[in-house]
Amino acid sequence: KVPGFTEGSWVKFCSRIEKGYPHDYEFDCADEEGSGVPLEALCDGAVDCSETGLDEMGCPGRFYCSPNSSEWVEPDRVCDHSKDCNNGADECGTCKIDNLSSSEFLIQSKIVVGLTGVLAVAIIAMNSVQVVKMWRMQCSTNAKATERIFLINLFLHDLVMGLYLLGIVGVGLVIRLKGRYCMLESAWRSSWLCSVFGFSFSSAAHGSLLTIALISHTRWRNCTKIGAHIKKRYALGMVALINLMNWFHSFLPLMPTSMMKGLFGTEMFFKNLKLNPFFGKNPINRTRLLMVYEGMFNRTSSDVYEIIETMRGVTSQKEMFDIEEIGYYGNTGLCIHNIFKEHGSYTIYKIAYCSTLAIVLGCVIVTYIGILIKQKKSMKKVDIPGNAGVQNDGMRQRRSAMKLKILLMIGSELLCWIPYILTIIYFESIGGKAPPLVFELFALIFIPLNSLLNPLFYSEMYKALTKTLWVSWRDFVRNM
Predict the structure, then answer these.
(1) DSSP category for residue 270
(2) Stretch 350-362: mean pLDDT, rounded?
(3) Where are the extended beta strands (E) located within 222-300?
(4) Distance (Å, whole) CA 406 – CA 421
(5) Start-to-end Cα distance in the chain
(6) Distance between CA 336 and CA 420 in Å, rounded?
(7) Is residue 470 very low, low, confident or very high in pLDDT (cuts 50, 70, 90)?
(8) Would you say 326 and 190 are in contact if contact means Cβ atoms under 8 Å apart?
């Protein structure tokens, strides 16, 4: 009896099984006489039919790299993000990289590609127009000059978000033309370009939010007349400070130190896994790595890079320990920050990160609510004689319009960031790994949506749009 074989496993071998000598039955390797091997040699992992390899073809419980080949891998090594077949077949074909990607395309759906492209162009166009307008604008007061500086910074960050989306669409189209994304996936996710995209996304999203908090605080100061107006040079200094802090935060995961790579890194792979007798599969299991290291050298270390270099130093085949790293921004092919990463020390960073976001959002909400309260109090103090009713109606309409605008501004921030914070808390509380769909929703919808709405709410476009909608609605009602 041959191990691993069931009754149905013999069907494809039956035509080549013959009576032989010295064995009762043999497997015929070819049509020539005398080329048989014992049945025990079938599917034993060693090629006994030296010319054809037929004794290792079509064996049960294996994934074959091509239809007429004896090259195979274990089923649990298929779709594990490590190419074990020479032609990469174990990572291509039926493998689904994540919800949007497939083994062929970075973004599989043409509809998603098209919609993302339209969103990117809209964000770039709207924010570019506002940057030019703000740059050319002549300010009559110090308050307007200060806000102009903040608005230019806001629109520039949102412009970068549009460029990020357009870049992702561009990379997706290039890979679509080349085909077989599965062959390029690990190279793309570990590339410097993916890191640049990730840095751009992170700095654009967080820079936009920080600038909005700065604008809301300044408007509240001007409205309540608490403290002196911020001077232009101080405004420039504040913008420079939040930008430096934002860029440092976005660049932190890219710092080439063992501590930072250990904290923020996503995955590590052995490039030449087949040559490595100590590890059977990728990605590198850190627990297994530490166990092997301790067994070899009778000492421990928490530095993965030191461990690998030490192992490399005691073998003549140093290439067996060559590694490929996927960094913080390469968790998915969309190259956004891996805030959902599971790591003991990383939990502290998550808490600090979510707390900072909550404080910034709270600042935006509290200051704008403070502006509404101040305006309501001012309305009560106004006493207009004569046509007071008509003028007060006009003031009430303007106040209602302002209230609606502020509520929309606050709502857009909450819509983009509250689901993000709650999702981080949820996956941290259950100790689970966030699925790729989570990254895709925030990368292509929730966070970029803010960059589309900001040039609308923080410019004259809102007034023009509401006026157009009101006129259209009025004409529609009249014609009914």
Answers:
(1) E
(2) 91
(3) 267-270
(4) 22
(5) 86
(6) 13
(7) low
(8) yes
